[in-house]
Amino acid sequence: MPDSLTIGELSVRSGVAPSALRYYERLGLIRADRTGGNQRRYARAELRRVAFIRISQQVGVSLDEIRAALDSLPEGRTPSPQDWAQLSASWRSRLDEKIRLLAELRDNLDGCIGCGCLSLQRCVLYNPGDALAGEGPGARLMLPRPADAPPAVTPG
Amino acid sequence: MPDSLTIGELSVRSGVAPSALRYYERLGLIRADRTGGNQRRYARAELRRVAFIRISQQVGVSLDEIRAALDSLPEGRTPSPQDWAQLSASWRSRLDEKIRLLAELRDNLDGCIGCGCLSLQRCVLYNPGDALAGEGPGARLMLPRPADAPPAVTPG
DNA sequence: CCTTTAGTTGAAGTGCACTTCAACTAAAGG
DNA sequence: CCTTTAGTTGAAGTGCACTTCAACTAAAGG
């Protein structure tokens, strides 16, 4: 019963591809020791880090923010359950807000798309404060949100 | 009071960059007539299409699926409010499911990350049936979800 | 000991949803 | 009529989160 894992083992147990694990290492999200032959050997505690990374992604957090969060873990010792709980708690309000916005979106969906009042710029569905992760990746917004736009009256 | 819009006008009223509008046209999501000088002129009804596109993106639907949805609108006539309501209703179950999964994630967050029971492959947080849009874009999964993985007992 | 399986690297590729650029033309204002 | 502002195109670039590839080396099994 070895107490370190090869990259293949960590991959199988975490469900994360080896290439992704190497990528995480490059970003400083996880770490590994090396064998004499330069192969990675992961401490078992890394398994929990990987779990935290994947769960955080579900919450809609970017790898960069996840890295920042992980950096706040204690340096010397293996993080305790409480350390992890504290870390995960920090995603909580984010998750709450996300759920709130989606619920709002759902409750206004028929009405707002269907009706004639669709006054884009002021619509709940249109201006959810860019907090939804559904926005997707890619280059940043070109129009920062036109402040000089007319009140936007909808057609007949 | 012209009843067609230039790309700049449509951009300001919809809050969507001109480059994005051209992109949507290339993908077949919206359409425009052309002036003698080859400039785009949008019918006012396109405003609602753009609104539908942006709202659908909030729901987490890809442009490709949005295109498919828009293709189901009636061909000859301008879509009625009911047409739009029907279309938006089709996102509803998706939204419900997404909200359900996020709520589940929230309710298990502390417990699952903090405790020693974190049994990755079987965890609610880990296997939400790839239905969350939070997964992000990019290349597809390499490991299709290892079926041959051991029961994954956690350390200590 | 040989073969197979698993690992290594850096560089390049992928997919989505765009934006940016260069080099140009059209339309609107004074 | 000239200038400014707004439009046109195709090609290339961007950011994120990875994957894929080529050319290799290490470790494990029989």
UniProtKB/TrEMBL annotation, chains A, B:
- Entry's InterPro entries? DNA-bd_dom_put_sf, MerR-type_HTH_dom, MerR_fam, Redox-sen_tscrpt-act_SoxR, Tscrpt_reg_MerR_DNA-bd
A single MF term (Gene Ontology): DNA-binding transcription factor activity
Per the UniProt entry, what are the Gene Ontology biological process annotations, in alphabetical order?
Answer: response to oxidative stress
Database matches in SMART domains: HTH_MERR
Q: Which UniProt keywords apply?
A: 2Fe-2S, DNA-binding, Iron, Iron-sulfur, Metal-binding, Transcription, Transcription regulation
The cross-references to PROSITE patterns, in alphabetical order and at most eight, read: HTH_MERR_1, HTH_MERR_2
| Signal peptide location | none
Which SUPFAM superfamilies does the record associate with it? Putative DNA-binding domain
CDD domains on file: HTH_SoxR
Where do the HTH merR-type domain residues begin and end?
A: 4-72
Ribonucleoprotein: present as a keyword of the record? Answer: no
Which Pfam families did the record assign? MerR, MerR-DNA-bind
Cross-referenced NCBIfam families: SoxR
Q: What is this protein called?
A: MerR family redox-sensitive transcriptional activator SoxR
What is the species listed in this Swiss-Prot or TrEMBL entry? Answer: Micromonospora taraxaci
* Source organism phylogeny: Bacteria, Bacillati, Actinomycetota, Actinomycetes, Micromonosporales
